[in-house]
Amino acid sequence: MPASTTRPRGGGRPERPKGPDGRTAAPRTEPAPLRGGLWRACAARSSVELKGFFRNKQSLVFTLSFPLLLLVVFGAIFKGKAAGTDTDLRQMFMAGTIAAGVMSTAFSGLAISVAIERDTGLVRRLAGTPMPKSAYFVGKLVRVVVTTVLETALLMTVAIGVFGLPLPATGGRWFVLGWDLTLGTAACTLLGFAYSALIPNARSAAAVVTPVFMVMQFISGIFFPFHELPPWMQEIAAFFPLKWMAQGLRSVFLPDSFTAVEPAGTWELGRTALVLALWTGAGLVLTAATFRWRGPRVR
């Protein structure tokens, strides 16, 4: 017979129903409906993500300084012209460093942060709130986009002020810079979400993510001129988005004469856009199929 609320003799407050174990059951409460709809929820979550990022001084400094450090080190060590071209090596490294910075933020940093939030239970608690689940992804994406814009602006400022590198010469090159960064950031972000499913816990997050990030840099023409890498390495790199993002950025900052040492002899901007768009779609499918709101069970 189900428990019912009874009123004690002599009046007073009614007794709460008791559960099967004899303990008084807590009153059931329904979560308050979210006001303002999806857009307001996305804006609120994005604000939380940005505040958390900018208030964490150590994370802020490391995230923005890592690609800058690469640019300064390579710019100081490697001087002169790239083999077989009349292009300054520092221009080539600038294009690669921007691409590496995008992957560092959108893939490595995102995958690690999601793994930490899942391990600490934050992701599970957010899933149980009235907040639409899509707002969590939007908030992360906004954080990545803001960080990418700041990184790119900082790298270009240092490259121009310290090394005297030229800005993109035409409006068309600025347009290529815009869509290349947009598609590359979207692809790396979604792949970061999907890859986080392979991370068992927060302690192993860096160990699982960092090797992939480092290998991609070595084979994608970030640390070395892409045309000087072994052909088999070029073929492997061509399957992943970092190589194409770096190639698109080379078309922005390097003269057209540099295409003489590109594998296809051209910038392949159409193929670059297609590959990055396909990886964005693949990342969306993989994220939908693999993203977990709950961490692995502890046995």
Give a concise summary.
64% of the residues lie in helices and 0% in strands.
Written description of the protein model:
64% of the residues lie in helices and 0% in strands. It is built from ten helices and no strands. Helix 2 runs antiparallel to helix 3 (89-119) and helix 2 runs parallel beside helix 5 (133-163).
Which value, in Å, is the CA radius of gyration?
25 Å
Cα-to-Cα separation, first versus last residue: 37 Å
Write down the overall mean pLDDT.
Answer: 85
Number of domains: 1
Overall shape: it is globular
Q: Tell me what portion of residues adopts beta-strand conformation.
A: under 5%
State the helical fraction.
55-70%
Sheet bearing the most strands, described? none
The helix/strand series, from N terminus to C terminus, equals: HHHHHHHHHH
> What class would the helix/strand composition place it in?
mainly alpha
Low-confidence stretches: 1-5, 25-34
Would you report the number of β strands? 0
Number of helices: 10
